[in-house]
Amino acid sequence: MKSVFIREQKRYFFHNLQVLFDLEKESLQRLLQRLKAFGILKTVKNTKEQQELSDLFEEDAELEELSSGGSESLYVFTYVGLVMIHNFVLKCYPKYIDKEEYLDIKLKKVIQVIEKADQKEQEILIYSEYDSGSSFNELALIMYLFNDYFEYGLYNVEDTILEINGYGDINWDRTINDTFTIISNNRPYYPELVTQRKIDDEMHFIKRIHEIILTLATKTLQHAELHNLLGLPELLLTEDELDDLAEKDYILYRIEQQLSVEFNTRNQLLLKALYIYVDKKDTSSVKSDISFFGTNSFHVVWEKACAVAFENHLDHSLESLGLGDSTQSLKEFLEKPKWTSKGISQYSSKTLEPDTISIQDSLFMIIDAKYYLLKVEANGLYNNPGIGDVTKQFLYQLAYKDLVSAKEKDLVVKNFFVMPTESETDLDFGSVTMEMFTGKPLELSPIYIIKLNVAEVYRAYLKESPLKEVIETLKGSSSIIGVND
Questions:
Q1: Beta bridge partners of 93
Q2: pTM value?
Q3: Domain, as residue range, for 212
Q4: pLDDT tens per residue, range 272-303
Q5: Dihedral (C-alpha) 52, 58, 64, 69: value to the nearest 10 degrees?
Q6: Apex 336 CA angle, 332 and 339, nearest 5
Q7: Helix H or strand E segment including 144
Q8: What one-character-per-residue DSSP string does 80-125 give?
Q9: pLDDT at 124
């Protein structure tokens, strides 16, 4: 398979993609149409403004069919991760990577971060929701099967063996009912004891299916040259093929039968995964010509990583944070809108929700992780967050103002936009002010812009260890972002 590196959010011309994929016009159009159908690719109008942007907004995306390959449209990949389609492996890397050196190494770390961020969301189809018309995401299923194997091992079925005077536990029911008894002094004695022990059934049908599928999955990754990128060892567990066991329908029947008597949650999920793999692998359906592992929402991954890096306290109680004696969390403290009409009142179920709040000694930090590439040039700033993001951040500070000011210890509230960079961390990149918030009478803190080195953030996230040096600097700095300004 041919590897093609794609930069997220980059504006590509059709002829650029022809060079990357080395395809004729019609073949490339069909491939791009499949990518667009799965939300991996979008098109925008070819304007000078669009060519300069590094972010894509929904209102900019064109809904019509792909163009005929002319210059009227730009092609934008909105995906970060891996896509296998036809004979290609698309390696889609985040937009903040602007240097093409060591792309495999960088993307490998990104995949680890995505996997951790999405470990609860990246689930296979629930069996009851699965049907033969469902599309088959082979790559995501392979990732699930490998991760399951490394945590739990092969599907295991235990057989109970009964023996006479063996090494297992005594089965008193069988001993009393099936063996000869000696009575002495009105007490029974059993010269032969029926014992029982459990042994693994090494040749169990489902276990053999599991071994074959892991081996097939390994060969798929070998063909795509993805083992190293995904950090997965090769699992060549058997030389058998599925056809050696039985026909497809019988294999599916045996998995269904085992599922009907299986009550262990892990085993149930594994059986469902095996069923889907057997049912969909090597199908001729066009639905199965694409598989992927990654996300269309890398901004959510960045938010989760920053929450760990800054030691998020949003779910902590006010009492545990020294902000009162309430068991209410910082998230729950925020007021919900109250709707009233004709004598009937009702509170909304949702309210404002900051990304991260971190309380470090006397510093109360309200952090909004922004997956933006803010650029500063001689003629202005580009790719900056919109007015909604700015006003929301000031409202967060306003919402917590009374809580903070009511405490005996002095807490200084600071607002931050945190953005990614491949360069060195910059804690003094800039700020955002609005006179209605930062001037009198509110006198709220400006929103300080800091750029964090992504490698440091990912290291902190994967180890679940906050960026203590950054936090200490923010606590003690006397610069624009410090607590003493």
A1: 7
A2: 0.82
A3: 127-156+203-295
A4: 999 999 988 765 444 468 899 999 999 999 99
A5: 30
A6: 155
A7: helix 138-152
A8: EEEEEETTEEEEEE-TT----TTHHHHHHHHHHHHHHHTTTT--PP
A9: 46
Same domain, 381 and 442: yes
Based on the domain organization, do 351 and 400 belong to the same domain?
Answer: yes
Note the Cα 146 to chain centre separation in Å: 16
The tokens describing 464, both together, are: 């679940």
Report the number of distinct structural domains present in the chain.
4
Please tell me the distance from the alpha carbon of residue 292 to that of residue 34, in angstroms, as a whole number: 12
Alpha-carbon span 199 to 196, nearest angstrom: 10
Q: Is residue 54 domain-shared with residue 87, that is, in the same domain?
A: yes
Which two structure tokens, joined as six digits, stand for 379? 């003629």
Angle between helices 454-463 and 103-117 (to 10 degrees): 40
Looking at 295, 318, 346, the residue that finishes a domain is 295
Distance CA 221, CA 243 (A): 21
DSSP letters spanning 8-63 = TT-EE-HHHHHHHHT--HHHHHHHHHHHHHTTSEEEEE--HHHHH-S---GGGB--
Centroid of chain to Cα 423:
24
- Distance separating alpha carbons of residues 293 and 82, to the nearest angstrom: 5
- Nearest Cα residue to 330 out of 385, 278, 411, 403: 403
- Between CA 45 and CA 23 the distance in angstroms is 23
Give tens-digit pLDDT for 137-167.
Answer: 889 899 999 999 999 999 987 666 677 877 7
Q: Flag whether 252 is in a domain.
A: yes
Confidence (pLDDT) at 278:
92
Among 355, 361, 351, 363, smallest CA distance to 312 is for 355
Residue of 74, 93, 95, 72 whose CA lies nearest to 82: 93
356 and 244, same domain (yes or no)? no
